[in-house]
Amino acid sequence: MGSTFMVTSSYRQTYEESLGNPGEFWLNAAAKVSWSAPPRHALDASRAPLYTWFPDGVLNTSYNALDRHVEAGRGDQDALIYDSAMLGTRRRFSYAELTGLVARFAGALRRRGVGKGDRVVIYMPMIPEAAIAMLATARLGAVHSVVFGGFAPKELAARIRDAAPAVVVTASGGIEPTRRIEYLPAVEEALHLAGVPDLPVIVRAREGFAATAADHGWQDWDSEMAAAEPAAPVDVAATDPLYILYTSGTTGTPKGVVRDNGGHAVALTWTMENIYGAGPGDVMWTASDVGWVVGHSYIVYGPLLAGATTVLYEGKPVGTPDAGAFWRVIREHGVNVLFTAPTALRAIRKADPEAALLRDYDMSSLRTLFTAGERLDTDTFHWASRSVGVPVVDHWWQTETGWAICANPRGLEELPIKAGSPSVPMPGFRLSIVDGLGVEVAPGTEGNIVLGLPLPPGTLATLWGNDERYISSYLQAFEGCYATGDSGYRDADGYVFVMGRTDDIINVAGHRLSTGAMEQVIGQHPAVAECAVIGLADPLKGQRPSGYVVLKSGVEVSEDVLAKDLVAMVRRDIGAVADFKHVTVVDALPKTRSGKILRKTMRQIADGEEYTVPSTIEDAGVIDQLIGSLRPGGSGD
Ligand code: COA
Ligand code: AMP
């Protein structure tokens, strides 16, 4: 980290303060949050390696996101703008109005038995009621778990089983460009699969869907609201959970990342000012989904904690109705900060390579374009910088961390932007790049990216009900560190370059998926002896899953028929979002002598990268046989 601009910069000073005196640094940051009892202590290390922040602080997150701004005289300011490109509708909610709706829905949840610490599963499309349900849950000191609408009933059931909610909140359905997705049959199936068919369900009705709440014996949102008394914010300990968000692990069982109340409010408030440079009166639009961490942090909590206006967009970057949709939303709502995934920019570029549609819109409100979810490839970076004409800032983070590990903190200091890099570590992230033995590698050398413990506020506290899995999944591989599962390198200026995962997680259109989960589904087909799913490079979606299967001996089935079966099974069990569409039958899979499938080598061959075959391979001949299937027309070198 030796270059001059960094030595003198306020970024550098802030970063060093955060590592040198974390207690003071984060207690100062905590002063920007409203507490019922302000914390006097920053960190509780008594259960290390499990750490908690602000152990004696008491607050309510919903109060901080809503009431506080009304009390400060900003009740009339827009809190949330709902823009549905699917329906062609817009609706604005002031802070006062949103606070009223959230308080009332909190009352409705309370009537259905939800209290402090209880869980509420939210399975909703991108409609304002999704954010209202989240904030209402938080208001009661209860814990929400939002499940992305693109997941199939089995995935929803796994989350319901693990979180054991008191209530499920859903809507009639979601709207995709080519079809309407009925949610209610999926919820019904999930409740049965989870063994809780009688769980209370509240349904937000939407026009144009077949099933109604009454058909299932469930409650209607509007009736529940009408019957409810508004509920006041309930005090919780800073260390109490705010939400559980399930994310793909390397096995088929998702991990329930637990976020606390206090650390989350403090960290997100810091990021709004220092990373995004956004505060009261600013409009932030995060074009993601409330089902993902990016949606939790920057569609719902971050902008509202900061007293800014958030845009909740139901639509796609292209096709709703065209590749000018993003530019229209920016102009129409005066967006100052846009946050999206690189895949969305690639989709726009594909449809409108010269960004001709952009010329129809006044984009002067836009200050910065942030991207995350996957690496911002340099081509897309240059195209977006040229087309949009504002700084394009990649930043790197994970469901687990809840906010950026590396970013270019535009509010704090406009550091130079380097194509291909999410810039530098954010406060509290003691980042190192180490080899397999945990030894730090030299600048320019790729290795495992690890973060020294404790992680800063706002990062995961543990995995829901499973401290052991948290420790074994993240904290054991490298002594005293959290393993990010990503590999990368640092350049001589201290800029980090994140190159990819070291495990079996892939990233398809900014969606994090487990190849292990897909293999588990495929392995259930009666014709399949064994299989491997790998993520191949895809020019639009970053990666796409591709399955390689070995048939049981004696089985006669055409590759086409089998492929159709397997594609349908993955869609049924995981969801359309897995985007699993490619299957190849092979004679054998390359394995080590201990039986581990060499997925990385397979991926390197298929993507035409250089590869080395590990010396532990069981039968090197399998690689030669596979090359034709993996890389049509390829040779072995
Ligand atoms: N509910 C139900 N189904 C959904 C869904 C949802 N919320 N979201 C996606 N799907 C379905 C799609 O309809 C599609 O189904 P299909 O196979 O029948 O066509 C499938 O899942 C794959 O969808 P998607 O990945 O969105 O691909 P696409 O080809 O429809 O669109 C992009 C491509 C790039 C436009 C789109 O992926 C996109 O907007 N990506 C941005 C993602 C993002 O913001 N991620 C957040 C990370 S920060
Ligand atoms: P998720 O938990 O769904 O946010 O996915 C997190 C993973 O996505 C990370 O571990 C990375 O592999 C990848 N990722 C997210 N943002 C970036 C980025 N800016 N650059 C590189 N990879 C990223």
TrEMBL record:
| Gene Ontology molecular function: any one | propionate-CoA ligase activity
Q: Which part of the chain is the AMP-dependent synthetase/ligase domain? A: 72-452
- Which of the seven top EC classes does this enzyme belong to? ligase
Q: What is this protein called?
A: Propionyl-CoA synthetase
Query: What is one Pfam family matched by this protein?
Result: AMP-binding
Q: Which family does it belong to?
A: Belongs to the ATP-dependent AMP-binding enzyme family.
Q: Which residues form the signal peptide?
A: none
Question: Domain AMP-binding enzyme C-terminal, which positions?
Answer: 518-596
Q: Which residues form the Acetyl-coenzyme A synthetase N-terminal domain?
A: 11-65
Query: What EC designation does it have?
Result: 6.2.1.17
Keyword set, alphabetical order: Ligase
Matching entries from PANTHER family are given as: ACYL-COA SYNTHETASE, ACYL-COA SYNTHETASE SHORT-CHAIN FAMILY MEMBER 3, MITOCHONDRIAL
Entry-linked InterPro entries: ACAS_N, AMP-bd_C, AMP-bd_C_sf, AMP-binding_CS, AMP-dep_synth/lig_dom, ANL_N_sf
